[in-house]
C-alpha cells in the first residue's frame, strides 16, 4: 500500500467566489489546504472582521488566543462522498453571517484567501471592470485621453473632443541617425500642435508602468489611444528584414517592434482605462499577435470592435488601409465604425482637384535612378491622370526610395511637394511641422494617420464614450 507524503508550504493562496443564497451571500472554503494548515475536522475557529471592506481572518481557537475571549467560536465542518475515491472526507469552513460578509467584503464577488498555519486571511477582490466603470463616471469636465506613439497628427484630432492628459512619445534611434539624437522630434512636433498635461518622452518598451498608472489615476483619464509601430507587419518591409530585426544585436538590443502590443496591454493593465483605440496596418487583424491581443482584452472584460478601413471610403484622397481596434468596458452601449462609401469622383475631377493645383511645386525626378528602378520592378507608387485616389504615402517618402509616391504625367515623374504630402494625408492648415526638419516632417506625415478618416473614427469613439459615461 502506497503512503502519500505531502510537503506542506509555509503559505498557500486561493481565489474563491461568494455564493448567492436566499438570505444574501455565503462563502464556503472547501479545500485540501485546510488540514495542511491545522484546520482539521471539528477544530474550533474564530471569525474576525479586520475592517470595513478590508476582509476577515479565521483563527484556530485556543484559550490563550489574545483578543478573542468574547468571540463566538465555530468549527471546521466535514462532509463525505461515498462514491469518491479521492478525498472522500472533505473539510470546509462555512461563513454565512450577513453582517460579517457585508462589512468584510462589501459588494465584492470574489475573495483572495491566504493560508498560514492556524491562520486564514480572506480579503475582497475588486471587480476591475466595475471599478473602471465607477471611476470613469467620477471625472468632471472634459473627458481625458492618454495618447501614445503620436507625433501630433492623431493627437490633434483627439484634442478636438478630449483633453490630452498625457502624451507618451519617443522616436527610437535608427541606424541612419548615426550619432544624432532624434528621440525628442516627435514629441516636439506634437506639443507644437496640441496642449498636453504630462509629456513622457520615454521608450514604451522600458517606461515605468507604475509611473503611468499614477499619472492616469491622478487625472482619472478614461481614453487610451495608441498607434503602434507598424513596420514589422507592413507588406512594404521585406520578410528577410523582418526576420533579421528579431536577431539580437551586439549590444544586446533588438530592432523589432512587433512586441509593442504587449506594452499596450501593460499600460492598460496598470491604468485600467475603460476605453482603448489602437491603429495599425491592415495586416494586423489576420495575425496571431491580434488574436492574443484580443483574447486578453476579452479576458479583462472589454468588448472589442475591429475593422480594416480604407481611408478613401471615408472621403480621403488616399487609399490608405488601416486596422482599427476599439475596446470598451461599457458593452451595453452601442458602437460602430463610420459607414464607408465610394466617393464617386471621376479621374478627371480627381486630377483637377488634387494634383493640378500642386503640380507646379513638384520636382521632376524622371532622371532618378531609384525612381526608374522602382518603376521597372513595379514597386513605385504612381498616381496619374487615370487615378481616382492616391496610393499610400510612406515614412520613407523623403528618401526617394523605390517605393516612393510619385506623379506620372506622360513619360515624366514628379515628386510631391510638402504641401501636396499634407494634402494627401488630409492634414488641416493648423497643423505645423515647424519644430522639425523637412526630413523628419516628411517621416511624421508618412507614418501618421490619414487625418480626415481618423477624425471620423474619433467622432464615433467620442459619441460612444459620452453615452457610456451618461448611462
Structure commentary:
- The chain is an alpha+beta fold and 471 residues long.
- It folds into 3 domains: 12-126, no CATH class; 131-343 and 452-470, 3-Layer(aba) Sandwich (Rossmann fold); 347-424, no CATH class.
- The protein has helices at 33-36, 98-105, 128-136, 153-159, 185-191, 209-219, 239-245, 260-271, 288-299, 347-354, 369-377, 418-424, 438-447, 451-470, and strands spanning 12-17, 19-21, 24-30, 44-51, 55-60, 73-75, 77-80, 89-95, 110-116, 119-125, 144-148, 163-168, 198-200, 223-227, 275-281, 303-310, 321-328, 363-364, 381-383, 405-409, 412-415.
- The strands form 4 sheets. Strands 13-12-11-14-15-17-16 form a 7-stranded mixed beta sheet, sandwiched between helices.
- Helix 4 runs parallel beside helix 14 (451-470) and helix 6 (209-219) crosses helix 8 (260-271).
- The longest helix has 20 residues, at 451-470.
- It is elongated and about 100 Å long.
- 35% of the residues are buried.
